[in-house]
Design goal:
Layout lengths: L9 E8 L14 E4 L4 E8 L2 H14 L3 E8 L2 H12 L7 H23 L5 H12 L3 H24 L2 H21 L5 H23 L6
Antiparallel strand pairs: 1-3, 1-4, 2-3
Length: about 220
Amino acid sequence: MINTPGSHAQVYEIRLKGHLDSQWATWFDSLTITLEENGDTLLSGPVADQAALHGLLKKVRDLGMPLVSVVPVQSNRSEQGEKMNTSTTPAKKIDTKVLLSTLWIVVMINMLKADILSLYIPGAAEEVARASASAGASIPQLMLVGAIMGQLGIAMIILSRVLKYGINRWVNIVVGVVTIAYIWGGMASYPHYIFIATVETLCLLLIVGFAWTWRNVEA
């Protein structure tokens, strides 16, 4: 189709195989760029005419990225506004780094709450002494382990936001699993502890799950 003077720009969806490197994004600054989870890149937006479309396809060819499809979305302005809202505008997603960091905050708040509530349990000091004896470690050593795990959880709030994609995934998976083992390894039979430990474990399982399925789209 050749647009005549005065006709409206046609909106196209151009799908490429592979993810477009950010350094080439300026080549397509008039289009919306969506990096899809299946590994494709979707370029969408209005194209003035066939000459402009051919220019875009020439850029794709110069990049060496396989062209999957070129699909016109609509042909008039009244349809364009609706299509841009429903088809070509990517849905906003919560950044995985922010999500992981927020879950670590929830875990640490619950750990702190459990420690505070445990102070009101009669004989808490004697129970710590019994735990020390059964573990074959001194009370200061047990307190040191608790302090290290607490600081590790606090560190994860920051590290989840600043570490690079690959190491970020594995650090969250490993620390999440270790923290679950720590929580239930020091298990107490008090109802409040079981409840809080369950909440912590659910959050940690979410952390491990999100990290495991995280793909390098937004990293």
